[in-house]
Amino acid sequence: MKNSNDTFKKIISHAKEYGFIFQSSEIYDGLSAVYDYGHNGVELKNNLKKYWWASMVQMEDNIVGLDSSILMHPKTWKASGHIDAFNDPLIDNKDSKLRYRADVLIEDYILKIESKINKEIKKAEKKYGLEFDEKEFLNTNSRVIDYQKKIDEIKLKMKKYFQLDDLVSIKKLIDELEIKDPVSGSSNWTDIKQFNLMFSTSIGASSDSASEIFLRPETAQGIFVNFLNVQKSARKKIPFGIAQIGKAFRNEIVARQFIFRMREFEQMEMQFFVKPGKQKHWYEKWKEKRMKWHLSLGISKENYRFHNHEKLAHYADSACDIEFNFPFGFKELEGIHSRTDFDLKLHEEFSGKKLRYYDNEINESYVPYVVETSIGLDRMFLAILSSSYNEEELENNTSRVVLKIPPFLAPYKLAVLPLVKKDGLSKFAKKLFSALKLKYNVTYDEKDAIGRRYRRQDSIGTPICITVDHETLIDGSVTVRNRDTMLQNRVKIEDLNDNIDPLVNMSAFL
Ligand code: GAP
Q1: Which of 150, 260, 307, 360 has its CA 20 to 30 A from that of 45?
Q2: Domain ranges within the chain, ordered by starting residue
Q3: In 3-state terms, what secondary structure has residue 63?
Q4: Which atom of ligand 1 is nearest to the CA of 334?
Q5: Which stretches of the chain drop beneath a pLDDT of 50?
Q6: What is the pLDDT of residues 181-235, one digit of tens each?
Q7: What distance lies between CA 310 and its chain's CA centroid?
Q8: In 3-state terms, what secondary structure has residue 302?
Q9: How, if at all, do strands 414-418 and 442-444 pair?
């Protein structure tokens, strides 16, 4: 996995050059933290949505879909706590003038201590070889014990101060730990202030009658307010889930790292409604299932890890992230939250309508508890793009950039290429292209030498190239080239489907 700034820059420019991602409103110098998806980007993004939807809705007997609106009654956000509590604790460095999230600064500090522990382990491993017992080392090495003690103390303080919303003590903690701005290297910090992340606009024709509404900061609330509509119309019994994919908006202050942190982004969320008391069981189950889903994409498992939240969101009784090893290090890709009955209860209170489930088995009605899985589609896109980007030196002193995207997610599954335009090869290839189009997303290219065309397909991650040549006209066979191995096979046209399908058909991976 690449970890350098340089590689990240290359990935960003590759994404632009090959029509994956453009800066929004670029001709006006762009809009910060807002991006557009180009012709290849939209295909990859749609495939990611399809894969998530197939796994979370189609393949799950007790989950159904929803597509709720972005604009919601303003009381929704009062009830959900977003008006009062959807804040980031922000702190400015007076020297660099850069703004940071206070919790992130402290968490990064903890990560640094953790990496010191890892270094000690590596050193000891080298020294003691096969005799090395990591557990014993962690329990007995005085330096490691001190590091761990420090981490535990910081985590405890952080948890307490954030629960009490005690910004003064958090600032004191940053001062005590002598946390420095990674850019200016100074500890010259302002006080911490809460900043609400919701975008507001107004609804109504005239300024008198207009009222303030918000662009949703998460898709989840559309699911909560529709809980009974869906439960009754789909005749679902608890436990069951509602899933949706849609846009969310946050006025992020620390907006950087390309599509990692955007102001307009897409979420793929699922709320799983369970009997009160069963939430721990389902929380663990969904943690396991979601990690399995990630691993099914074939990216090596060292690139994923769980991270338990120290600072719980205002609605959660336990929460963790699945973190991914992005080019800038491990960061949150997906959140799994046990949201209790917080949302449904507050919507009951604010709307005056009951949001209860009548449980036939116990002849009782109750407000269900909720376990949520929430993944950013754009972050998932970045995870795929960055892990699939490869620069390879080839045997003949040339090189290639290849996107080793999981084949079933690739923008195009196949490229049909006539070896040359003349001798009827184009005509034959176009016919084959038209036939394959019915089943796969296929591209056609007849411009430039065949080698250059292979490189172009490698650059956008097309898993298979099919070349039509003079032999094709004689025996009805084509060359099938594999993107990753670059190996070429001769295959009869009537056998193409059997060759291609196992590699590119999504259903084989569900
Ligand atoms: N409904 C719960 C919720 O919204 P979250 O942890 O705030 O929880 C869920 O967000 C996921 O949405 C994150 O794990 C991340 O993948 C994605 N996400 C959040 N903010 C984002 C942003 N500004 N840009 C891109 N993706 C974002």
Answers
A1: 307
A2: 1-70+216-393, 87-196, 402-509
A3: strand
A4: 14
A5: 1-3
A6: 999 999 999 999 999 999 999 998 766 666 899 999 999 999 999 999 999 999 9
A7: 21
A8: helix
A9: parallel
Q: How far is the CA of 374 from the centre of ligand 1 (A)?
A: 7
Q: Which residue has the tokens 């799950």?
A: 60
Q: Is the CB of 374 under 6 A from ligand 1?
A: yes
From atom 18 of ligand 1, which residue's Cα is the shortest distance away? Answer: 376
CA distance 446 to 417: 6
Q: Is 60 helix (H, G, I), strand (E, B) or coil?
A: coil
User: Could you say which architecture CATH assigns to the domain 87-196?
Assistant: 2-Layer Sandwich (3.30)
Measured CA to CA, the distance from residue 65 to residue 243 in angstroms comes to 5
pTM, full prediction: 0.86
Q: Cα of 484 to ligand 1 centre, how many Å?
A: 32
For ligand 1, mutation pick of 101, 333, 379, 381 (most atoms within 8 Å of CB): 379
**Rounded Cα distance, 148 and 43, in Å:** 46
- Alpha-carbon distance of 296 to 280, in angstroms, equals 25
Question: Residue 287 corresponds to which tokens in the numbers above?
Answer: 């943690």
Q: Is 250 in the pocket of ligand 1 (CB under 6 A)?
A: yes
Other beta carbons less than 10 A from residue 316's beta carbon: 19
- Alpha helices in 63-186, H assignment, sequence order: 75-80, 82-85, 102-128, 134-140, 142-163, 167-176
Compute the distance between CA of residue 160 and CA of residue 212 in angstroms, rounded to an integer. 34
Kindly give the number of the ligand 1 atom that is closest to the alpha carbon of 376.
16
User: What does the pLDDT look like over 148-194, one tens digit per residue?
Assistant: 999 999 999 998 998 888 999 999 999 999 999 999 999 999 999 99
**Is ligand 1 within 6 A of the CB of residue 252?**
yes
Average pLDDT of the chain to the nearest whole number: 94
Angstrom CA distances, 102 to 164, 195, 277, 487, stand at 15, 12, 34, 51
Q: What is the pLDDT of residues 402-426, one digit of tens each?
A: 999 999 999 999 999 999 999 999 9
Nearest Cα residue to atom 15 of ligand 1: 376
d(CA 246, CA 225): 16
CA 510 – CA 501 distance, rounded (Å): 14
For domain 1-70+216-393, give the CATH superfamily: Bira Bifunctional Protein; Domain 2 (3.30.930.10)
> Is residue 57 a contact partner of residue 419, using CB atoms and an 8 Å limit?
no
Report how far residue 433's alpha carbon sits from residue 193's, in angstroms, rounded to the nearest whole number: 59
| Closest ligand 1 atom to Cα of 337 | 2
**CATH code of the domain occupying 402-509:** 3.40.50.800
Q: Write out the two tokens for 215.
A: 């662009």
Query: Considering only CA atoms, which residue is closest to atom 16 of ligand 1?
Result: 376
Report d(CA 26, CA 24) in Å as an integer.
5
Contact assessment for residue 44 and residue 190, using Cβ atoms and an 8 Å cutoff = no
CB 262 less than 6 A from any atom of ligand 1: yes
Query: At which residue do the structure tokens 């010191």 appear?
Result: 116
